[in-house]
Amino acid sequence: MALVVQKFGGTSVADAERIRTVADYIGRTVRHGHQVVVAVSAMGKETDELLHLASQVSSTHPGREMDMLITAGERKAMALLCMALHDIGIASDSFTGSQAGIITDIDHTRAKILEIRPERIRKALDAGRVPVVGGSQGVSVDRDVTFLGRGGTDTTAVALAQALGADACEIYTDVSGVFSADPRVVPDARRLKRVSFEEMLEMNAAGCPKPAMRSVEFARNHGVRLHVRSAFTWEPGTWITEEEPSMEQALVSAVVSDTSEAKLTVTGVPDKPGIAARMFRALADRSINVDMIEQNVSVAGTTDISFTVPREDLTATHAVVESLRPEIGATGLTADPDIATVSIIGAGMKTQPGVTATMFETLAAEGINIEMISTSAIRLTCVIRRDVSEQAVAALHRAFQLEGAS
Ligand code: ASP
Ligand code: MG
Questions:
Q1: Residue 210 falls within a domain, yes or no?
Q2: CA spacing 20 to 30 A to 72: which of 186, 228, 331, 400?
Q3: CA 171 to ligand 1 center in whole angstroms
Q4: Structure pTM?
Q5: Ion ligand 2 residue ranges (Cβ < 5 Å)
Q6: 206, 223, 241: which is the final residue of a domain?
Q7: Rounded distance from Cα 6 to ligand 2 centre (Å)
Q8: Considering the domain boundaries, does residue 405 fall inside one?
Q9: In a shared domain, residues 271 and 193
Q10: Closest-lying ligand 1 atom to the alpha carbon of residue 42
C-alpha cells in the first residue's frame, strides 16, 4: 500500500463528465489498496473568469477580497469531486486550504506556505476516507483566506505530499509528461521517462511552464518524487526526481524556447565602476526582473550593455533607463520587442565538450543569427529573432537526435 497525492488541474475537471472520470480513476487507485489525497484546481477557465469579474467591479483589486473570490473556484471543484466520489461508493471529504491546515504568510494573491498542520487530513485517511483539498489556498497567520498564486495547486499537492510523507506526488494535467520539445512545435518530440530536478528547473527558467517552477523547487528542497502525467490517457508520464549517480546523463534532454522577453541595448556606456550598478538598481527598485545581461569589451573607454526583461516590462524599463541616460553618460538606447530565447538543457553537457559548437553550427546552418548567449552548467541559451524561434527549436531537436518514442 502506498500513500499518493494526486493533483488534478483545471482541464482535468473542466466539466461534470470530466469530474466523474477523475472520480472513477481515484476510486480505482483506492480499490487497488492505496491511500489517496487529492488536490484539485478550479474547473476549466474558472480562475480567469473570476479574475475578469473582479476587474469589472474594481480597479484596485483588494488582496483579501481577491483571495476570497478566487479560492471559491477550487472550493466548487472539490465539493463536486467529493460528490462524484460518494456516488461511486468512495468515502471522501472536501477541505479548504484552511481546513487542511495549510498556514501561509499574509501576502495576498501570492501567499507562501509557512507550515502545514495536516491533522484533519490524517484523520480522514485513517478513517479510510479520501481527503480532497482545494488547491492553491491556505489560511494566513492573520486568519484570512489566502491564494497561493496561479498554478498554485501544484504547490499545494507537493506540500501535502511532503507533510504527509507520501510515496509520490502525481500531477495529472492535459499533457502526458515533460517532453524533449513542445510537441505543438516538434511533432515527434519524445516524452522523457525521467528528468532531474535540476534539469526541470532549468527548463522552467528557459520557458517550459509546466509543472509550475515553484512546486518543482519545493519538491527538490523536500525530496518529494514528482510524476507528471495525463488525466486523459492515464498512461505513465515523466518522473522528476533527484539525479542518481548511476543514471545515464543525456547530453541534451530538451530544447525549450521562450518568446515572452524583450531586449534593450544601452550604447556608449562609460566603462567605469558603478554605472551598471546604478542602472540595474533603478530597475530593481521598480521590481523589473532582468534575465540575461551581456556587456561588450570597451573600445575607447565606452561599452555597450544589452539585457532582456519580460516584454510586458519593456516600456517601463525603457523609461527608467532613458531617464538615467544623461546622468550615466550613455549615448544611445534601443528597445527590441521581437526576440526569442532558445535553450538546450541536459545534465550530461557538464562534462562533455562540443555541445556549444553543435548548437552554434546548427543555428548557423539555418541562417539564424545569435544575438546574445548565456550559459549555466547544464543549459545553453541564445537570443535570436522571434520569427525563427520554432525553426530553431526544430533544428536543434534534430541535431541532438532527441526525436523518437521513449
Ligand atoms: N486555479 C488556479 C490557476 O489557474 C490554481 C491552479 O490551477 O493551480 O492558477
Ligand atoms: Mg490552472
A1: yes
A2: 228
A3: 13
A4: 0.90
A5: 10, 41
A6: 241
A7: 15
A8: no
A9: no
A10: 1
